[in-house]
Amino acid sequence: MLSVDLHHAFAGFTLDARFEAPPGLTVLFGASGSGKTTVINAVAGLLMPDRGRIAAGDWVLLDTERKLRLKPHQRRLGYIFQDARLFPHLTVKQNLNYGAWFAPKDAPREDMGRVVELLGIGPLLDRRPGALSGGEKQRVAIGRALLSAPKLILADEPLSALDETRKAEILPYFERLRDEVAVPILYVSHSASEVARLATTIVVMEGGKVVRQGAAAKVLGDPDVLPMGAREAGAVLTVSVKTHHADGLTELDAGGAPLFLPQIAQAPGQKVRVRIAAHDVILSRSRPEGLSALNILSGVVQQMQPHEGAVIVAIDTQAGRVLARITGRSAQALDLAPGVAIHAIVKTVAVASSDIGAVAAPA
Ligand SMILES: Nc1ncnc2c1ncn2[C@@H]1O[C@H](COP(=O)(O)OP(=O)(O)OP(=O)(O)O)[C@@H](O)[C@H]1O
């Protein structure tokens, strides 16, 4: 359990943030100036808050009531920044060893071989950072952070400097980090697909306060919150791969209903997270026939929320919560209201591969 309780007053800005997160990856989300960096700085020990307590499990980094304030180098944190910050004169292997060098001698350590395998960096070990792509550098930076035997990993917009191709290359490694390494991760991000794919928990900040916290699917599926705004709204479904078809489509089992997506890499039986963008969902009162769209999820309208000139409709389907963003005129024409039975139609090609993520099989 990651537990953060911080109070700090700057002239003109007060941070009053409190959240608790279960194991996994916790995304700190909020508009510019909402206080995310201030939280990260307090966790890192770069800012000494007026009052507060920060703990990762039984590892207490700060407890002002008990006058406990670990210095930054005592906090056992692994950092992953936007730029990888590797030492240019050292090889990849030496950069990794540098991380291990910081691990306390008696700390249970990640095995170098396992970390190298986890991040797929075996072929890079003898190269220097100058001969690595941005994505490869970032994988090495993750490895270096892991090998320092951290109690908590801080990732401050680690993908924001990378282009879409490199991001797609790194996201699976963060998924593995989340699912295979028992170290909590506190992750700042502005990206809808990153949050949808990676977050176990989402903490939404506004004006120095935590306005919402909870499991990712719950927060992203709540039309009252919409941390990304109405245009980027989208719910996340956890579904399992059923079969791969010869025509390049993958069929998923979405709570008993078939969901077809462009072919994905996961094997039948594996669970995946799929982000369904609210603007890609069409609603119909009757079950449509003779339609090119392959995906029809049936459900019941739970809530309707006006947002930025449109209406966000929350529908509970057999596959889970789906959001649809439609015009007020369409909502009226369909006579939508909570309790109404509805069919949500999702175009197969509307789901981008960056919106589909792996989920570890339950242990
Ligand atoms: N040392 C400081 N002195 C005074 N005000 C500060 C200080 N550091 C941060 N602030 C203020 O605290 C507020 C929150 O800043 P913070 O950098 O934490 O926001 P953020 O959510 O990380 O934003 P961004 O997404 O732009 O990085 C801002 O209004 C900022 O001006």
UniProtKB/TrEMBL annotation:
Q: Which SUPFAM superfamilies match?
A: MOP-like, P-loop containing nucleoside triphosphate hydrolases
Which controlled-vocabulary keywords does the entry list? ATP-binding, Cell inner membrane, Cell membrane, Membrane, Molybdenum, Nucleotide-binding, Translocase, Transport
According to the record, the segments passing through the membrane are none
**InterPro entries from the UniProt entry:** AAA+_ATPase (IPR003593), ABC_transporter-like_ATP-bd (IPR003439), ABC_transporter-like_CS (IPR017871), Mo/tungstate-bd_C_term_dom (IPR008995), ModC_ABC_ATP-bd (IPR011868), Molybdenum_import_ModC (IPR050334), Mop_domain (IPR004606), P-loop_NTPase (IPR027417)
* UniProt GO cellular component terms: membrane
Where does the Mop domain lie? 290-355
**Residues of the ABC transporter domain:** 1-232
GO terms for MF: ABC-type transporter activity; ATP binding; ATP hydrolysis activity; molybdate ion transmembrane transporter activity
Stored Pfam families: ABC_tran (PF00005), TOBE (PF03459)
Recorded protein name is Molybdenum ABC transporter ATP-binding protein
Q: Which organism is it from?
A: Celeribacter ethanolicus
> What gene makes this protein?
modC
